[in-house]
Amino acid sequence: MKKQSTQDERVVIQRRKIQSDGFGLVFFLLLASVMVQQFIFDAPFEQYAVELFCFLGMSCYMIIRNLAVGNNLFGESKRAKYTPLIYSIVAGIAATAINGVLNYSRYAEKYQETGIGLFFAVLGITFISATLLTFVVLSCFGFLNKRKQSKIQKWLDENDLDE
Question: Which of 2, 65, 69, 141 has the lowest CB atom count within 10 Å?
């Protein structure tokens, strides 16, 4: 048998918090690295593919693990039911801003020839599309999350009846 040393609960919690903060920092830096290489340096996909796949892989892992154990993705507060909508609008604004800056920097001459109205139409379509797509994805996550939580609650209720 392995000898287990007892550790103070506070020390374990602090270590986990530090590791969580480190993970969050690396997660943010990967996203920043991908964005800088793609949009500022105009690098080929091969140059930032590893960072992008690591970022997407970590995102999927976190979502799947939280869904699998039944953790509430959007919190427990009264405002939690509006969280997918708020996140969707923020994602729509971010996607529109990034797309607007990139499109205008690349195609400014064409927008000046055809009029700025086309540019704003593209921005409107981008905002609506990004917002709707994000809302649908987050709503699906919310549905799966509620389903898993109800399964866990049902299992706990059955075990309480057995005892």
Answer: 2
Place of tokens 């999927």: 60
| Cα-trace Rg, the chain | 22
Q: Enter the tokens of residue 132.
A: 């709707």
Contacts of residue 61, Cβ cutoff 8 Å, sequence gap at least 6: none
pLDDT score recorded for residue 160: 77
Whose CA is closest to 33, among 58, 10, 55? 55
Contact between 84 and 140 (Cβ < 8 Å): no
Which pair of tokens denotes residue 99?
A: 């797309």
> Do 50 and 34 form a contact (C-beta atoms < 8 A)?
no
Mean pLDDT over the full length of the chain:
90
Tokens read off for 135: 């809302």
- pTM for this prediction: 0.80
Question: What is the residue-wise DSSP string for 76-131?
Answer: SSGGGGGHHHHHHHHHHHHHHHHHHHHHHHHHHHHHHHH-HHHHHHHHHHHHHHHH
